[in-house]
Amino acid sequence: MTATHNGYERIGVIGMGYVGLTLTAALAGKGFTVHGVDTQPAVLASLGRGEPHIFEPGVAEMFSEHVGARILVSDELPDDPVDAAIICVSTPVDDATHEPYLRNLAAAAEHVAKKCGPDTLVVVRSTVPVGTSRAVVLPVLRAAWGDGVKLVMAPERTIQGQALRELVELPQVVGGLDEPSLAAGMAFFGGLARQLSLVSTLETAELVKLTNNCHTDVIYSFGNEVAMLAERLGLDPLEVIKATNLDYPRPDIARPGYVGGGCLSKDPYILISTASRAGYQPYLIGNARRLNERLPEHVAGRMVSMLADAKGRADGATLLVLGWAYKGWPPTDDMRGTPIASMTPVLSAAGVSVIGHDPLVSDDMIRQHGGEPVSLADGFAAADAVLVITDHPEYRALDLESLLSGSPVKLIYDSWRIFDEDTVARHGVRYAGLGYEPSRPEAAAGLEGAA
User: Fold this and answer.
1) For 273, left (φ over 0), alpha (ψ -120 to 50), or beta?
2) Model-level pTM?
3) Which CATH number fits domain 288-434: 3.40.50.720, 3.40.50.150, 2.60.40.10, 3.40.50.10190?
4) Any residues with CB less than 8 A from the CB of 40 and at least 6 apart, and which?
5) How does pLDDT run across 280-313, given as a tens digit for each residue?
6) What is the fold, at CATH topology level, of the domain defined by 10-200?
């Protein structure tokens, strides 16, 4: 028998990407019956077998246990209206204009309007420009149902690798169209999250999500700025940041690193679009995003230069890339915003052959992004250089002594500084990282010139 949570039993989740998939698993774990909707036949087939198409700890177990019972997947909502319909469709930005694409959201709203009625609580969970819930979703619902619409905006704010825990433990922000909508949102999400953060409008909730992610992007960009400066000065950015942060009572400086994923790679552009429409041009957000996007290309360029130093020329060199997802911790197979996407064109143009390994990313996906998949042992045996892109736990635990013994590797660029530098140097291999090139002659020359 289905559990009842303040009158909410049957839930529709429209869009079975990362947000919808994890929410479906979390709701099923709380006793709700969830109707998951997606338009992609391959996704529906996989989920129907209880096999999620996206890696997230705990989700596969939830689907295996509940699919066909508490979790039902289809290309449409059931004819009998659900108690709540949660829109989780993707809202990508155009690669050229960076303007958000909202047709998926409008189509989802139209489907909800067709299959449900005014007694259904409608939740927008997709990340959208401020004003979108009111301007895009609400008119469709009102055209079908009249004025008795219950609509809330309740953004998803979890981190990959910890989503099922954070869906329960993080405060759930809820903004309502009106008081009845807000009360309905409180009643529903009170059955999932431990704490609710109620805000006054749909627009406030929309801006909360964008603010969270843009702030994160800006924080990370400053660590990357420090790294770029340290690289030119011949200093160690981690030493600088560690000393900066030690027992200092102001906010910590983030360590340098690649910044990607489905949210941080697009949400700044969604907020910039919102601001532009309001007649304001943000100062920080766009530059922070551009710096973070430029970092992988910069590293690829440095790899080409250092390969040329090590071999006399980069053309014909073989580079082993460790980590193809956008991050390694918490582990994920998500390729959205992955650094490798902007690295491989630079490497290919220089004649560098790329071989690759990732503990979670499929061989086909590695090939699609310009690499030839290999095992760790084969990769170290064939490569002239190694580029560590993610700090996956498997890479932190590598036996470098064994892998480097007899290997042709002459250079390791350890983006996250997870390897022991002394071990690498003991094998006659040059060691470098983001902003850290201790044997780079140009840096010393630059300092002498400044003196």
Assistant:
1) alpha
2) 0.92
3) 3.40.50.720
4) none
5) 999 999 999 999 999 999 999 999 999 999 888 8
6) Rossmann fold (3.40.50)
